[in-house]
Amino acid sequence: MLALVALLQLQAAAITPYPDDSLPTVTLAEALRRATGLDPNYVAAVGQVDNAEWARRSAFAVLILPSITLGTDVAWQNPRTIFFAACTSFTSCPQAPRQVTSQVTASYDVFLGGRKFSELSRSGAALDAAQANEVAARFTTAQRTESTYYAVLAGAELLRVAGERLQRAEQQLAVARARVVSGAAVQTDSLQLRLELTKARVGRLVRAAALRVARLELGRRVGTPGPADAAPLDTAPAPELPLALTDAINEAVTQGHCTAWHERTNERQGRRSAPGSESTSRKQR
Prior knowledge:
The protein is mostly helical. Helices cover 68% and strands 8% of the residues. The protein has helices spanning 2-14, 28-38, 40-64, 79-82, 115-182, 191-222, 245-284; strands spanning 25-26, 67-76, 98-107, 229-230.
């Protein structure tokens, strides 16, 4: 136990803690928006959707448009070999004749055994698969981001509880020492309180380390250079209720009346069946 406490204290001293006031705070909506733009799996899925859309356009264009080929050829002769006799000097040779040829070829395959339609169907299926992968990647990123966000909130609350536990253990140990000084107790009576104080300190260090890891993970997902803190849910706008307050009251009143009516009906039926059961039991006797 003492070795564990010493190890945790050394780790806490080696890591420079960030003050809570200096941490960037993000809301859940902002964290989701930033995480979807930084997650490599989601970005790759979006790129696959883009490639599949262009492949779909290409297959559709091949189906209705002809294939056009442009070509240009340029040729000229060397004046030093053919027109060497006409050269009066090295710089006064006549220009060699040049020949430029350009051609445009357009072709359209009328029948290829259904290859164009099969390619169009394949590109459509590939586009649907890429869109499905993009939706799955987006939901996966959102789930991991929300899990990390709520882990930060839970870690902060658990750290607060661990701090209160440590404070309570210190107060109890102080009261036990006062009782020992006053002679109302002996020193061995405070051993259990010392153990509780040690456990509280270890628990607080563990919760602080877990909260720091969760904040670093949240900062990595939202793209901050360091840890990031999650905004409390109390400050976020509450979602609209699926049922208005007046409708909920009317529904509760209606259900209450129905329940009371059923109870009264069952009670009356029980009273009516009671005399018959008594007479039957008497006849059997």
